[in-house]
Amino acid sequence: MRRVISLEHVTRRYGDRVAVDDLSVEIAAGELAVLVGPSGCGKTTTLRMINRLVEPTSGTIRVGGRDTRELPVTELRRSIGYVIQQGGLLPHLTVAENVATVPRLLRWDRARTRARVEELLELVGLPPAEYASRLPRALSGGERQRVGVARALGADPPVLLMDEPFSALDPITRLRLQGELLRVQSLVRKTIVVVTHDIDEALRLGDRVILLQTGGRLAQVAAPAELLAHPASDFVAGFLGGDRTLRRLALLPLSTAELRPDGGAPLPPERVDAGASLRDALEAVLRSPDGRAAVVVGDRVLGVADAQVIRRAAATG
């Protein structure tokens, strides 16, 4: 695992209060890691220490193998994209001018900057011909957030930090932009650190979840399915809530299940797409009068799922 971000025994104090306590964690190249935990657990402080908006009281933070204290702050921050709520756009600049902020600071020529702006607006689903000349006040909250992501990617930084990027949005827009972030990440493969207070968002987005507890102490680091299956403490189990099994089923693909053959028997009325999750399959099984659901790709039936099929797949997933 090639480490891009490394926190080594990092502590941040504000007088007698400890915001982050002896935190050690590593984030790999191309990984989307999510910092989550209760209010006041130090997750935003941790994020801001990575780009030195907050300085650690003690410990070492490395980005790309280099101690961040040894880098000029402006050099460090220009190499790290940063996204906050509502994108943090400059209201008097157009969308294109906002996205071009860092390339302009780096003195890119106009042609290169314009091409990069157009590329990034297309990437986040905002056609340049329609959006480039708009001012932020003419955009919806979701559109402003997309522009914020495009701006953070302006100079193609290896690292992207996102501080509660979707928390101010309505649930439908939030869900849509979570999917958009995953789509963009599948294309650009940045090392991304996201802060959220929402465990469902953390589980949906993260390759790994970094769960902090009150006092800024590390509670557990794990992939979402592993976190749900094996919480490391009563605190972790309590934070995840009582519906851990259903949350875990939502993360596991139905494609991992060993389906029952239809055997030529009449197919159950309920159908579920083969690309769905085990939770989707379970819901279809529970709706079905005979407790079975046909698993399909288009009109082709791959097999049949029932409670035992789902239980077996969850045990091995």
Q: What is the average of the pLDDT values?
A: 92
Could you name the CATH class of the largest domain? Alpha Beta
Query: What is the C-alpha radius of gyration, as a whole number of Å?
Result: 22 Å
The largest beta-sheet arranges its strands as 6-7-8-3-9-10
* Helix/strand structural class: alpha/beta
The name of the CATH topology of the largest domain is Rossmann fold
- Overall tally of domains: 2
Helix content: 25-40%
Distance between the termini: 23 Å
The biggest beta sheet is recorded as: 6 strands, mixed
What is the helix tally?
A: 14
Write the layout of secondary structure elements.
Layout: E1 3-14, E2 17-28, E3 32-36, H1 43-50, E4 58-63, E5 66-67, H2 73-78, E6 80-83, H3 95-99, H4 101-105, H5 110-123, H6 128-131, H7 141-152, E7 159-163, H8 171-188, E8 191-196, H9 199-205, E9 208-213, E10 217-222, H10 224-229, H11 234-240, H12 244-251, E11 271-273, H13 278-287, E12 292-297, E13 300-306, H14 307-316
Parallel strand pairs: 3-8, 3-9, 6-7, 7-8, 11-12
Antiparallel strand pairs: 1-2, 1-4, 4-5, 9-10, 12-13
A few lines on this structure:
The protein is of the alpha/beta class and 317 residues long. The protein has helices spanning 43-50, 73-78, 95-99, 101-105, 110-123, 128-131, 141-152, 171-188, 199-205, 224-229, 234-240, 244-251, 278-287, 307-316; strands spanning 3-14, 17-28, 32-36, 58-63, 66-67, 80-83, 159-163, 191-196, 208-213, 217-222, 271-273, 292-297, 300-306. The chain has 2 domains: 3-249, P-loop containing nucleotide triphosphate hydrolases (Rossmann fold); 253-316, CBS domain Like, CATH 3.90.1280.
